[in-house]
Amino acid sequence: MRNYKILILLTAFCLMGFGFWFAATGMTDDEHYSESYFEREDQHSTPFSEADNEGNETAGQIAALLLLIANLPVAVSILIKGINQYLPIGAGLKKILSNLNRIQKKYFMGFHYYLNLSILGIILWHWFASQCKSSFLPELGVIVMLISMILGFLIKFKLCPKFFRKSVYKIHTQPIVFISMFLVLTVGHLIVD
User: Fold this and answer.
1) Residue 1 within any structural domain of the chain
2) Tell me: the pLDDT tens digits for 86-130?
3) Are 73 and 103 in contact (CB under 8 A)?
4) Nearest by Cα to 168 from 192, 191, 148, 142
5) How far is CA 36 from CA 1, 6, 110, 175, in A?
6) Residues 63 and 128: beta-carbon distance below 8 Å
7) Is residue 35 in some structural domain?
8) CB distance 135 to 191 below 8 Å
9) Total domain count for the chain?
């Protein structure tokens, strides 16, 4: 029964996120006309230069690719744990998957720890260089991402007190935080573009 509640909750959040996307495309145009919803020339505010926005797009694409690479070991680990827990597979295959998960964590979790921290500069450059007037969702997504990165930094280097560490770990590893961050960033960038 608990799995169905989680699935229903996840579906509701996805519908709310994508439902907002369909409603918000009409609100991006100040005049509410039926054309020019997806690209307006005056919607991007670039405080650093009045030049073309291509460099900012490149920074965003680099940040997205590096975030994918940095968080791939976590996604593989969650996938393997989910397969082991919810699919009816034999004990031998479960052991192989558990060993694979242990090995991939040993060799690839360093990417998650250090690449996420190094991406922070690119993310902030992209955020400051291409702020948008038509939607606050990318900014909200960056704030959630920064909070998640700071919490991960505190966990990895044990910079928070012991009594607080378990709560920080729970917040950082909460799937709903990741899903909401992903939806907010995706929907926000779809509205902007």
Assistant:
1) no
2) 999 999 999 999 999 999 999 999 989 999 988 988 988 888 887
3) no
4) 148
5) 46, 38, 44, 36
6) no
7) no
8) yes
9) 1
Over the chain, what HEC string results?
CHHHHHHHHHHHHHHHHHHHHHHHHHHCCCCCCCCCCCCCCCCEECCCCCCCCHHHHHHHHHHHHHHHHHHHHHHHHHHHHHHHHHCCCCHHHHHHHHHHHHHHHHHHHHHHHHHHHHHHHHHHHHHHHCEECCCCHHHHHHHHHHHHHHHHHHHHCCCCCHHHHHHHHHHHCCHHHHHHHHHHHHHHHHHHC
User: In the beta sheet, which residues pair with residue 131?
Assistant: 45
Asked whether residue 136 is assigned to any structural domain, the reply reads yes
Residue 84 pLDDT > 90: yes
Output the CA torsion sign for 129, 34, 12, 85.
negative
Within the chain, what is the greatest distance between any pair of CA atoms?
A: 62
Q: For residue 52, what are its two tokens?
A: 């073309």
Q: Mean pLDDT throughout 2-6? A: 57
pLDDT over 50 at 20, yes or no? no
Q: Are 119 and 69 in contact (CB under 8 A)?
A: no
Q: What is the mean pLDDT of residues 10-14?
A: 54
Domain hosting 117: range is 58-192
pLDDT of 22 reads: 42
